[in-house]
Amino acid sequence: MRAVAAGLVVLLATVTACSTPEPPRSAGGSPEKSACARPAGPPGDETPTTIDVIEQAYFCILGNSFSGAKLDAGTLLAAGFTALTRELNRAGRDDPAAVMPPLTGDRTADWAAFETVYRKVAGPDEALAVATLQAMVASLGDNHARWSPGQERPPGYYDGDGYGLGLQANARGTEALPPLFVTEVPGGAARKAGVRPGDIIESVNGSAPFVDGEPTPAIAALYPQYPEARPVEVGLRREDRRWTVTLEPGLYQRDLPSLQVVQSRLLADDIAYVRVRGFAPDAANRVFRAVSRLRTGRTLTGIVLDLRGNGGGSPVEATRLVSAFAHGKATAYMCNADDNCEAATTDDTVELLGLPLVVLVDRGCASACEHFSSAVKDLRLGTLVGTRTAGMISGPAQPFLLRNNTILSFPTRHHLGPNREVIDRIGVPPDQYVPPTPEDAAAGRDPALARALTLLDG
Amino acid sequence: MMRRLLALLLVVTACSAPPPPRSAVTPSPPSPATLAAPTGDHPVGTTVLHLTDTSRPDPWNLDAKARELKVTLWYPGEPGAGARAAYMSPKESELVLRGSRAEGVPPDMLSRTVVYATETAPAPGRFPLVVLSPGFTKPVSTLTSLAEDLASRGYVVAGIDHTYESYATTLSDGRVTECLACDSDTDPGFGTGVVQNRAADVSFVLDELLSRRKEIDRTRIAMVGQSIGGASALATMAADRRVRAGVNLDGTTYARIPRDFARPFMFVGTPEHASGGRDNSWDRDWKLLTGGKRWLVVKGADHQSFTDLPQLLGALGMKPLLGTPSAARLAEITRTYVAAFLDEHLKSRPQPLLKEASPSFPEIEFCPDACGA
């Protein structure tokens, strides 16, 4: 789950960074210290994380996060202090002075008390500072909150490369249903070892992916992220054959056309199939152009939007795409902590497509993808086919620049669906449940797409 | 409007490695630019060729079964007067300015830019060839100052407009195409795809030129490009052995370099492309280049410093950023070092300028050993 979140937030951050940033908002906190501006361009060279950076992040979160005004600052400080003492202990240098200071509820005074103890026991140690701030951000429990210092591309990386074992399975984390099986082998060690879609994954590093039907952390080990480079042992079964492969994480080349964010083709002579891998800037217009091209010289009877694996992106693009199917509607609400909400309404300058719609969704459909899917469902604009979406849509992440040139991002408003219902952590259920199976994956069949064609035919 | 233009000009790079913003607005009404005069001995001639590669479909326009390209040749010309060539057409100017969100500038302003090349015939003799490839969204006209200078120094220059990768390209039938590729420029693998495609464009153009143009010495070919055009120079060399040397003007690179790649290559960049910077693509490639390689950083330069843009700023109502070398100086630096590298490797004339930092060019630092950060 964390891996998905990471990838997705990167995408979100990119999208917001390259579109028009909202002006910074200020509220609560200490105005001068919560001054964490929106990045005006790519940040300069990163410098070490210090207690001053943690301080800036603390006031930045309190001053700008959608729940900031109501957030218990003590929870942030306690999470940071917990991580600090854990790291001290691990390094064998626990300190008698490492005692959480008593808090008063005054955010500024509590910070000062925290900082005094911190400086005494941690000094300038950067690893401790990083662990402390990471824990504070994690304590928000927000799938769109992120702070990742020291991120480097793997040496030898080329644009379009993937990193990891070179396989995708039907689950990434705790949402998994047994059996775990390979859905895609885009390259890398998995392809070299002859792993194929449909292969059942019986073990990961010797551990079962499910115990009593409950998914285990073994599943996440299938998705190492740079710089993780330890080989992963995967136990596989294909029909009656059982074997184990040792896969080394690394960079691998991917097929460039398959990476295009919008791909389209004609199905069954009169149905437009458009796959949207992410809500990149201009994604909606690209869909409209693809459909208009497929429409030239023929009458279309329907459109399939394949949003499986769509990790999100720009809420503006999601709204524009909804706008091709309905006008004058709210597609979502963006709300502050007091539930003062602003509607994300359809862009009625977008031409209506006037075509029956089926949307393919799965657990990889997250964030802006769920914004779109929930609008289609609530506004009855089409049929959702597949499995429940990811439930990772706390709110659109906004980037803030910290003084050491790292980016801290989190939502300044939280997301609700068109009926003002919570989608975050819950996801959007499909209207027609068509789960993937290992048999279909092995045979290269796509039952969800087949169902979509049946629906549009009927 | 200036600010918007600014924004526009920077948009392309904004999502990669953007230069710092330029400053404010000039009050006087802008007038067309006159490019710096070429410095070599030859008069400069120019002509446009329209070439169609029927062996492959267009990579951007799914309805085009062939790849149509516009190639502008600049060459050492016969002396004698003739009408000066156009920088670009009024329609192209309008589309480039609009793509760059430069409302407020007269739409034909760029087409009124004064150049030196005329339609004079090629001078007798054979000359080495330099392929020129522009930055993303830019027509190759934006490298005219460099092209004319190289032609005056005895090179045939073939500038390619990569159709649908520019705000404006006029095809043989007069249609003016726009930037279809701009739709997908944030896709993963986009840069890798563009340079592969440009390498195919260049190989096709070489096939055509070498069989048609007698003034080209087919054994002496180099490629120079700005931004993704510079990245395409490396990609082209990786794919086509006919290209003997290359220069990349501030382009993040995308192509995998084959083992034992020993042909000479030069990187020229802004301080953001100094070794150890945020974009590690040059560090990555540097280790893989085994020939006569150079890595120069120009202090005070920005991403567009190696194009005509600094010379066009006045016409666009913009002022250069404080601390940037003047437009004339930037043209001198770009022309001098590119010509030095080409003279050394295509004309076998060793160049002291490429050996070490020169007191005449204190802006230039030699990476990775003695530069920046």
Keywords:
heterodimer, A: 458 residues, alpha+beta, Pdz3 Domain, 2-enoyl-CoA Hydratase, Chain A, domain 1, 6-stranded mixed beta sheet, 3-stranded antiparallel beta sheet, 21 strands, 30% helix, disordered N terminus, B: 373 residues, alpha/beta, Rossmann fold, two-stranded antiparallel ribbon, globular
Task: Tell me about this structure.
The complex is a heterodimer of chains A (458) and B (373). Chain A is of the alpha+beta class. Helix content of chain A is 30%, strand content 19%. A 6-stranded mixed beta sheet of chain A has the order 11-12-13-16-17-21, with helices on both faces. Chain A has a 3-stranded antiparallel beta sheet with strand order 1-19-18, with helices on both faces. In chain A, helix 2 (51-64) packs parallel to helix 5 and helix 9 packs parallel to helix 10 (368-378). The longest helix of chain A has 18 residues, at 73-90. Chain A starts with a helix and ends with a helix. Chain B is α/β, with parallel strands linked by helices. Chain B has a single domain (2-366), classed as Rossmann fold (3-Layer(aba) Sandwich). In chain B, 26% of the residues lie in helices and 18% in strands. Chain B has a 9-stranded mixed beta sheet with strand order 1-2-4-3-7-8-9-10-11, with helices on both faces. Chain B has a two-stranded antiparallel ribbon with strand order 5-6. In chain B, helix 3 crosses helix 8 (327-346) and helix 4 crosses helix 5. The longest helix of chain B has 23 residues, at 190-212. Chain B is globular, with a radius of gyration of 19 Å. Classes of the chains: A alpha+beta (458), B alpha/beta (373).
